[in-house]
Amino acid sequence: xxxxxxxxxxxxxxxxxxxxxxxxxxxxxxxxxxxxxxxxxxxxxxxxxxxxxxxxxxxxxxxxxxxxxxxxxxxxxxxxxxxxxxxxxxxxxxxxxxxxxxxxxxxxxxxxxxxxxxxxxxxxxxxxxxxxxxxxxxxxxxxxxxxxxxxxxxxxxxxxxxxxxxxxxxxxxxxxxxxxxxxxxxxxxxxxxxxxxxxxxxxxxxxxxxxxxxxxxxxxxxxxxxxxxxxxxxxxxxxxxx
Length: 242
Description:
Layout: H1 2-10, H2 16-27, E1 29-34, E2 37-40, H3 41-64, H4 84-92, H5 96-113, H6 118-126, H7 130-137, H8 143-170, H9 173-185, H10 197-222, H11 230-240
Antiparallel strand pairs: 1-2
């Protein structure tokens, strides 16, 4: 009875803001327990952002290096499907070296253009909500990558497209491809082609970026040694038990 009376006397002294703060704190605490105590939404969001930042920094940086695309079979850009006949025709008349130069130039352009992607990814990660983070944590091996694709594909394309065009000129890919198309179109009995190389490289570069981030995400989810901080270890332990 005395305890109830004391509580009744204290209630008027607790402000609305304080009550709201206590409710929000309770709301933002996840009931799942780990070895080190309860894990809140803030922990989950912070861990996912850390994991994504790690993947972006590690894998996107790799792609921007010389041969980052060209010598990585997972993301290497080849002739567009509709131009496979061009590649075959050039090699059949002893111009395999020109075809190889064309492929290398596309990859060089992608390697140069991908440098523009990091700020956009960082912005998308910062905007991640608690709900996004929890869904990603308990989702599939590529849930975080899928989130990035959903939130960054359009702004990345808009940023990449002019950059790819600039990079194509910077690395000389435009001249090489002009020579390839001119040579092919001059061959007898072929249908002339005029591909949009800029759009093609832009889309292949984006695919390559997401593919490599997915590789890093899967590694963090499945390889305990890749969880390089206490926060990653604590939060991803929840995923391991799902």
